[in-house]
């Protein structure tokens, strides 16, 4: 039986009420390379706290894709790498810091040390596995489809559901759909649809949001996708695994912009019988890897054990300083054992 009630720990909410009451300046930190869920949940939170009369600021460790820039409140977001001093000063004079959509300072990118050394009280709101004990109050729930879904629950648990207006609802809805592939995967709990129903009741324009996110690509991005599936795809049928490779030259050729490869890794999972899809993208400083899997295939263990990363069972990421070829070779080398372990 699915639980249709609010799933936030009420005892922890009491602690939040105390912390909010004591704080005058609040920092909100999404993870590095933020996605729709990280930015959506941060924007929902900042607008909610502002409505409550708090001074709050989102400081993103790094930039994010254009297809998220239409979100309400976007222009107020600070990007740490665009102004480090100002951001550090704000964080260091904050009395409360929210760590949003991540659960380890390692995922805070260049802000890792600043956050680890900050004296402020910290609250985590996150849905990834294996949270680190780095905060004073931790909301960590891997059952949630997204941090945005948790943010709705968080605000409701604080007794402020009526403060969720259309703008906040748009931000929350964005994270829910971007983290579930448009409510396709990781979204089988009835409660999620109650939350979505409440967001629709706030007046959000669902079609407009989908169009802003998914119908906003450049011709170059479309051609890069075509190239990727035609030239970059390798199917290892024996292991029900597909690999996509993109070199620096490929990216240059199609005028790569941040976010252009978002979602590419999902395509090979539409091939009959595929269980695993991996994309290797050669960047200037490292190879970035995204992993996706279906069902009970814990691809996050490969990300964690071999590629300095982690994530959810079916969606994980990592990076390596190895060359592109070395990284792919390593993956192919560990694949047979990983595949073997699935049948154990
Ligand atoms: P993506 O492939 O879209 O970058 O990330 C997929 C999922 O894996 C996301 O939930 C993200 O939070 C997680 N993830 C991506 N990169 C890393 C990483 O380097 N370390 C960890 N722990 N998780 C990651
Ligand atoms: Mn998320």
From TrEMBL:
Residues 25-176 form the DDH domain. Residues 253-335 form the DHHA1 domain. It comes from the Bacteria. GO terms for molecular function: nucleic acid binding. It holds the Pfam family DHH. This is DHH family phosphoesterase.
């Amino acid at each position: 039986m699915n639980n249709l009630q609010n799933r936030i720990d009420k005892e922890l909410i009491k602690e939040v009420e105390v912390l909010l009451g004591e704080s005058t300046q609040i920092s909100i930190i999404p993870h590095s390379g933020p996605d729709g869920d990280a930015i959506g949940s941060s924007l929902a939170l900042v607008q909610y706290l502002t409505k409550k009369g708090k001074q709050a600021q989102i400081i993103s460790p790094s930039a994010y894709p254009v297809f998220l820039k239409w979100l309400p409140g976007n222009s107020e977001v600070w990007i740490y790498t665009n102004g480090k001093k100002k951001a550090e000063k704000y964080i260091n004079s904050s009395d409360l810091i929210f760590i949003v959509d991540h659960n380890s300072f390692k995922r805070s990118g260049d802000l890792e040390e600043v956050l680890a050394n900050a004296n402020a009280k910290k609250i985590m709101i996150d849905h990834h596995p294996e949270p680190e004990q780095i905060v004073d109050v931790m909301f960590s729930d891997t059952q949630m489809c997204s941090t945005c879904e948790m943010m709705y629950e968080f605000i409701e648990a604080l007794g402020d559901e009526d403060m969720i207006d259309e703008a906040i609802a748009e931000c929350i809805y964005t994270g829910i759909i971007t983290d579930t592939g448009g409510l396709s995967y990781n979204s089988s709990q009835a409660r999620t649809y109650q939350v979505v129903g409440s967001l629709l009741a706030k007046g959000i324009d669902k079609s407009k949001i989908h169009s802003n996110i998914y119908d906003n690509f450049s011709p170059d991005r479309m051609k890069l996708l075509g190239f990727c599936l035609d030239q970059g795809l390798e199917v290892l049928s024996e292991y029900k695994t597909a690999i996509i490779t993109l070199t620096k030259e490929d990216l240059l050729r199609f005028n790569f912009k941040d976010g252009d490869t978002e979602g590419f890794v999902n395509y090979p999972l539409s091939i009959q019988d595929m269980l695993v899809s991996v994309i290797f993208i050669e960047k200037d400083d490292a190879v970035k890897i995204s992993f996706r899997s279906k069902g009970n295939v814990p691809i996050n263990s490969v990300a964690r054990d071999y590629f300095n990363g982690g994530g959810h069972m079916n969606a994980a990421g990592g990076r390596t300083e190895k060359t592109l070829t070395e990284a792919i070779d390593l993956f192919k080398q560990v694949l047979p054992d990983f595949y073997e372990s699935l049948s154990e």
